[in-house]
Amino acid sequence: MELKAEELDIAPYPAPVKTGMITGKMPSGIIVLHKPSGIFAISIVHREQHKNREAAIKQLTTKLVMTGVNTNGVNKQV
Question: Does the residue 20 lie in any domain?
C-alpha cells in the first residue's frame, strides 16, 4: 500500500518528559494523520525523530490495511 504525501499530516508529538539534568529537550515523537480516513498513528519509541516518523508511517499503513481503507480513503466492499 502506497501512501501519498498530500494525504498525510505529519507533526511533532511531545514525548513524555523524564525528570533529570537535561530539560527543554525538543519532542522526538511523531504523529501521522491520514486525512481522508481520520486514522492516525503515534510513535515515541525512538530517540530520533526520523526513526519515529518511519515507525509511525509503518503503523499507519498497517492500521489502514487492517481496517480495509484504500489509499483514496474509500472503504473496500467485502
Answer: no
Assigned domain for 50 exists: yes
Residue 35 lies in a domain: yes
pLDDT tier at 2 (50, 70, 90 boundaries)? confident
* Cβ proximity of 43 and 53 under 8 Å: yes
Give the domain extent around 55: 5-15+25-67
d(CA 47, CA 28): 6
Q: For 11-44, what is the HEC assignment?
A: EEECCCCCCCCCCCCCCCEEEEEECCCCEEEEEC
Structural domains of the chain, count: 1
Q: Please give the Cα distance from 8 to 36 (Å, whole number).
A: 9
pLDDT digits (tens, 9 = 90+) for 39-68: 999 999 998 899 999 999 999 999 999 988
